[in-house]
Amino acid sequence: MNRTHPQRSFGGISFDSTKSSSEERDRCQECSACLSCTRRCLCISIIALLALGVVGAVIGFAVTFGLPPPTPVNRFCVTSGNQTGFLCDDRVTCLPASQICNRIRECVNGEDEQEKLCNDLPSNLPGYLIFRCSNPVYWIYADKKCNGANDCGDCSDEKGTLVSCPPCGTQWWSCTPVFFEYCTCIPRALCRDRIQHCSDWSDEYACNR
């Protein structure tokens, strides 16, 4: 026996109730999907707005109070000649102090010639790279101290209370020099050259090259 779907007639127009119910279900499913999508989009939008708010707050704080200063890089090192030096970014190359701000890029990245380091000498240099002479107006690079030469002009970098220099090395002759450029020793290369370099003439009679 064949079943027929119930039909309703209004004003001479028949309606299939089964078809109508199916269409209503489809519309409900579409509506649910749309509502789900809307909620998901709304959540994403809220999260994005919150993230933007946090970023904006951080930027506002930085502008208002200023960014924290970067942590200074420790560049202290000791050269192969046992002198105070400047450590390059490669953390291997150690330059003698006198090679800093000499207008020659010794470090690969040029950090030994940075403007912030060299534009106001010696104020911008780390204290361990310089030596203040007895007259504080004058200064020399730290590796020039105790090198036998009168770099300060008053020998305060070679003798006196500001330094503790070792005795003259084997390549030097200890005496009281007569020339301004030396303080407590002269290079042995100057011995017996028929020129007086020591006040007692020992460079010509006692010193051997």
From TrEMBL:
Q: Name one Pfam family in it.
A: LDLRAD1_C
Query: Which keywords does this chain's UniProt record carry?
Result: Disulfide bond, Integrin, Membrane, Transmembrane, Transmembrane helix
Q: Does the keyword Transmembrane apply?
A: yes
Which parts of this chain are annotated as the region Disordered?
Answer: 1-20
Asked if the record carries the keyword Membrane, the reply is yes
According to its UniProt entry, the protein's GO biological process terms are: integrin-mediated signaling pathway
TM annotation in the entry: 42-67
List, for all copies, the residue spans of the domain called LDLRAD1-like C-terminal. 166-205
Q: What is this protein called?
A: Disintegrin and metalloproteinase domain-containing protein 19
Q: Which organism is it from?
A: Platysternon megacephalum
